[in-house]
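in:
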């Protein structure tokens, strides 16, 4: 039986580097090291065939704990709701007004980066409150 050691989450998008850098800011992730033989990612991109330049970009957890995120350019735009989304855990262990304050504070920070607030889902019998947002390309994610 094999054991999975790492997971990568891949996003289809229009602007891979821009979206990767947005998620670096959201999650405290970093851009992976530049491939050997290149001084910068721009140098690496210029070495690729023109049709492949800018076709993908990644970000990673600097501690190596969280999944690597990969962003790949696709020709079509997003047209429907995501079937998979990221939940950014900012309110873990918090309830009531304290949780709402943490969600709102993070929403304010991410809105300044270009994210959009969609709706607040208030706590019910089963779930604590969460805040639905969209990243800079319209992909839904939750603050929970």
């Amino acid at each position: 039986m094999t054991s999975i050691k790492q997971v990568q989450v891949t996003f289809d998008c229009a602007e891979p580097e821009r979206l990767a850098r947005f998620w670096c800011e959201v999650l405290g992730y970093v851009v992976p090291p530049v491939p050997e033989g290149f001084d910068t990612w721009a140098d690496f991109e210029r070495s690729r065939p023109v049709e492949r330049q800018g076709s993908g970009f990644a970000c990673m957890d600097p501690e190596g704990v969280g999944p690597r995120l990969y962003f790949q350019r696709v020709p079509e735009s997003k047209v429907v709701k995501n079937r998979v989304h990221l939940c950014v855990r900012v309110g873990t262990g918090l309830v009531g007004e304290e949780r709402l304050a943490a969600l709102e504070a993070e929403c304010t920070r991410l809105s300044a980066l270009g994210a959009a607030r969609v709706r607040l889902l208030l706590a019910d019998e089963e779930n604590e409150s969460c805040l639905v947002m969209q990243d800079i390309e319209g992909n839904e994610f939750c603050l929970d």
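note: The chain has two domains: 8-73, 86-143.
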